[in-house]
Amino acid sequence: MKKIIFLLLLNSFTHFLMGQSDRPAKPNVLLMLVDDLGWQDVVSYDVDEPSPYETPNIDKLARRGVLFSNGYSPSPVCSPSRCAIMSGKHPARTMSTTVASGKPPTPHHPQNSFISPWCRGGMDTRNVTIAEALKSNGYKTGHVGKWHIAVNHYAFPQPVDEGFDFSSHYPGNPKARGVQNGMPNRLEGFATKKESDPYRLDENGYPRDHVTEEALRFLSENKKDPLFLYYASWLVHTPIQTRSKQLLEKYCEKLGVDFPKDPKGWTLEGQKNPYYCAMVETLDYYVGKLIGYLEETDDPRWPGHKLIENTYIIFSSDNGGMEGYSNIVFTDNYPLDKGKIHVREGGIRVPFLMSGPDIPSGIKSDVVVNGLDFYPTILGWTSTPNSAKQILDGSDLGPLLQDDPINSSKVVDVRTNKPRKSMFWHFPNGYCQQSAHLKNGYKLIYNHPYERQRVELYQLYDASGQRVDWEEAKDLSKERPEIAESMKKELLTFLKDMNAGMTNYNPSCTKIKIPGAGKFVSIIDHERTNRRVRLRYQGNGAKLVQARIIYSFNGESKDSEWFPLEAKITPASGKNPAKVEAVLPPKTTHYVFNLIDENNFMVCHPKLKKDDFGGTSLRVSN
Fold first, then answer.
1. Are 51 and 331 in contact (CB under 8 A)?
2. Measuring CA to CA, which residue among 397, 361, 356, 360 is closest to residue 380?
3. What are the angstrom distances between the C-alpha of 392 and each of 91, 378, 431, 562?
4. Distances, alpha carbon 83 to alpha carbons 98, 145, 435, in Å
5. Which residue of 4, 98, 494, 533 has the smallest Cβ count within 10 Å?
6. pTM of this structure
7. Half-sphere exposure of 310 toward its Cβ, with a 13 Å CA cutoff?
């Protein structure tokens, strides 16, 4: 009997090896990046309080490969994360640090102490995207769903400008962006089973999702070639509503709440919003349809095998869960603090699953990873060279996944060529105005506005990896100043090396006293001759350290995008006042001056009104 068992095992192993030898050299890659899904929105990530959400398909995907409990997004908001994942570059390096920006710096309010730095509105097309790299290696590349790597969803550059053979934004109804959009209000417009209903319910009672259908179409039409599909679901972003009345009723009953009568608001705290519950389950269902197709469909490049057997799958979110705003609660990231738009754990820690041909299944790893790692990892999986020799800020997770998914020394830092110890975030935008540094279980938060405590220090884990303060409730910056100071220096060095845009102070602010206030430069006059511009100024006791022109080729458009140009500073000499000079690029339509002094105050000329850049800036008549 032992001999028979041995022969059976030997025969099975021989067939396994034969199958492996026939495996196509170029595997498929499916990158699923969903929108605003929180770390506690997936059952597999449940800690502390049990989740009411049902995510059986995502949980099955977690069991298929490696679940990273310390997976992070590159940014706490959408556009920078998506740009970082597509380009492989840190948001600080590309100056893509917030959503749909590309406007001249200006105070959000005259009494704000801070001014956000200029940041790029759309992806820099000089970067080689992961789609462009794979396309050069013979891959068919497809994108479906959200893009948002431009000043608006449909501005330049679009996916087809960045290496995608196929792209489908619209979800069937051109007036709606996602299956949850386009309802008169969230208690009207539920999907039906009528053939004429563009969101008609399928046999399982879930509404039709054009994004998922387009993803399945791309897979079906391109399975004869190695393929890369970027599936960017609009779920679970706002509006927080569902097309399935049945699901809404289900979660009202499960949560023990009455079916809503008023479509507005939701104030119950915690994970008690039935609309959001329904959205999470709907997303899970669509993920299941994609995985199911791969499991059930024969691989034409590998006879006798299914597509899933030669497909790497990544599942993650663009940022942490949005907990809500105003009078509506969406979800709760507890025990993580805060959510989207914050660099605290709730805003950047995300679901992070990876599976594929040589990745072991059923593994939970505490290794710290980031969406920036997708690009180099995919290059490794597909044997695609970095032919452009461009800088990539993430690490190749292939050796970690294949050799030992729980051994953090397998993740090599591209900057030091040693095991990665640090991770950084930069979000000098909106109210947040923060950067962060994670190292050896400690997390430092650096606050850029003057009136806030400059640094905060939290210990997320102890030396053995055990949970200490995920809630970021106990600030240790005073107890362990040496750690705080060391991590701060490393963070600021990182930002300097990246040439990151930094927060400036607002000279109009009088509500707090900032050192150097009252000494900032004043404008004497300004003139332009053709494209040559000159501004004369008086220092008033403050030395000017940087001068920029922020210019636009379409300054009057609501979707205008602006770019920085360094200007020459000439100090005062005798009776000649100090001046700033530059030559505008051809076809410039509008421009403004940004002058930064030694005390970090920024003077803008002319002073801009928020969201009125074309009307307030200096116009060029070409």
1. no
2. 397
3. 12, 12, 29, 25
4. 10, 15, 18
5. 4
6. 0.94
7. 27
